[in-house]
Amino acid sequence: MHADPTGQLGHEANQASRFSTKARWENIKMETLTISSLRQAIEGRDGATLASFYADDAVLQIVDQDHPPSQPLEIKGHGAIAAYFDDVCGRAMTHRVEFGIADGERLAFTQACAYPDGTRVFCSATLELLGGKIARQVSVQAWDA
Questions:
Q1: Is the pLDDT of residue 102 over 50?
Q2: Which fold has domain 35-143?
């Protein structure tokens, strides 16, 4: 390897490296959890963004007709939660956040969903945040019969 007395080759290499790193980071979608960003992800059926809001060790509990309060469905860990949202967001249905409120490390919202056959689902959720990520969520959902 030959020395570059002008220092330009090293500078150009550093610049190229910095720009390629910047380009890689620009392709990663980083969202801050707010009612607005949550609404956008839910209504846009964006499972990847929804999953990005959860901590690695998060727990999502769901109470519904099949999972009573004494035995809620528990989805544990980021990977399992991401798979859950991939499934839900992949369904042919609409989601609408009707109400949301945030207060420090807590957030709550309601959403109304509808399948093409007219079946409706209503969900009320509370979220506990830790370091800006969802650590625990409890959702209660009711389905049309």
A1: yes
A2: Nuclear Transport Factor 2; Chain: A, (3.10.450)
